[in-house]
Amino acid sequence: MNLSQEDWVAQLEADENAVILDVRTEDEFNDGYIENALNIDINKGQAFIYEIEELDKNKNYYVYCRSGARSAKACQIMNELGIENAYNLLGGILDWEGETVQP
């Protein structure tokens, strides 16, 4: 499900079962990420699927990438793998107005 930044943040802040998932590359992640984000690179193909399959399917995942395209695809894959609650951040980190962490 695609959410505007405002809805994504509001829902995330109210969700005690939330996990933030960054699906960018490790290099992109190291340029700065949303606090507490878990990084699983969607470009890793089957390795991405293996890592997603290891996640707790009862959690709610707030997914983002650079612009929103890869994270939309990631949400679709997650749904196919049995994770019902995956929320895509429209506009990705490019449009992010909140804080970011520099590793």
Automatic annotation (TrEMBL):
PROSITE patterns: RHODANESE_3
Annotated InterPro entries: GlpE_sulfurtransferase, Rhodanese-like_dom, Rhodanese-like_dom_sf
Domain of life: Bacteria
Protein name listed in UniProt: Rhodanese-related sulfurtransferase
GO molecular function: transferase activity
Organismal lineage: Bacteria, Pseudomonadati, Bacteroidota, Flavobacteriia, Flavobacteriales
Keywords: Transferase
One Pfam family cited in the UniProt record for this chain: Rhodanese
Residue ranges annotated for the Rhodanese domain, each copy included: 14-103
